Amino acid sequence: MLSHNINLHDLRVKLHKHNAKYTFNDSFVLVKECPDLSHESGCVFFTNSGVAVLWGNSNNSLASYRPLVQESDETNTPFDEFSESLDVIETSGGTLVHDGTISLTTSDDREYDQIAISFAMNNAVKLNYLEMDITKALELKNNAINELVNVVKSQNLDRVARTLFDLETRAHNCRYRLNLQQDLLEYPDVLWDYDKQCDLFNRVQNAFDIPKRLDNLNHRISWTIQTLNSYSEYVRHKHSSRLEKIIIAVISVELALALIQALRSNMKREH
User: What pLDDT score does 114 carry?
Assistant: First the structure.
């Protein structure tokens, strides 16, 4: 993962200027050769999410591609790079995935299989980043929850309610990023008409335990949201109790004032 977001159309223009041989789609660029960037064998697969998948000897050209990718980054936000790898061997039969090794066909299906595998690798790397980022966010939320315990004891309920609402909103945003914004379990549009490649995509996803890891992250987010809901309910109960006490106090004062007024009226009549 080289950046947060790549403008593929901008990258395509830069590749064209460097006389690259490539396949372009709105969701990916597959570069097969670019001598200007020391890329003469293997292929490089780019997606708009900022991931580059390097095949074969194209690893040697990563340093040359990096500036082009960063120039096409639409966010320019610094971050730690993430990576994954699988061993690849060539076969005259069909492409298979077994024990972390890809047997890649040399038949006409090779390019389609590489695209399917590259999308799955893309998701594996994106999930590495999301796991780190969301786990860090949830840890910060848990620390904030622990701090709220002392605030609740101090009876500053308005501040607690605002903080809880903010934390719960962020937790829901984490769930949105994980499940809806990334679509890590969905087939890429370009694979919809290719059942074999969809199956290959699933097999590579499973090789990185992507469904299980997504499920674990969702459980963590759910636990955080449930904890925040429990605190919110407790704060609402405390707030209601405080309002009840205030109402009782106001009624008591009004009764006392009415009683004093009645006593004064009686004393005046006696005189």
Answer: 92
Instruction: Report the DSSP pairing between strands 87-91 and 101-105.
Output: parallel
Tell whether 254 is covered by a domain: no
Residue numbers of the domain that contains 159:
112-243
| Total count of domains within the chain | 2
Q: What's the confidence (pLDDT) of residue 112?
A: 92
Same-domain check for residues 46 and 2: yes
pLDDT tens profile 182-196: 778 888 888 888 899
| pLDDT of residue 74 exceeding 70 | no
Is there a single domain that holds both residue 74 and residue 118? no
Residue with tokens 């591609």: 65
Q: Does residue 207 lie in a domain region?
A: yes
Residue at 94 is within a domain: no
The pair of three-digit structure tokens given for residue 51, joined into one six-digit string = 């991931």
Q: Are 260 and 253 in contact (CB under 8 A)?
A: no
Statement to judge: residues 118 and 234 lie in one domain: yes
- Specify whether the CB–CB gap between 22 and 29 falls below 8 A: yes
Among 33, 62, 31, residue whose Cα is nearest residue 44: 31
Query: Is 35 inside any structural domain?
Result: yes
Separation CA 185–CA 192 (nearest Å): 13
Instruction: Write the DSSP symbol of residue 85.
Output: -
- The answer to whether 12 touches 25, Cβ cutoff 8 Å, is no
* pLDDT tens readout for residues 147-185: 666 665 555 677 777 888 888 888 888 888 888 767 788
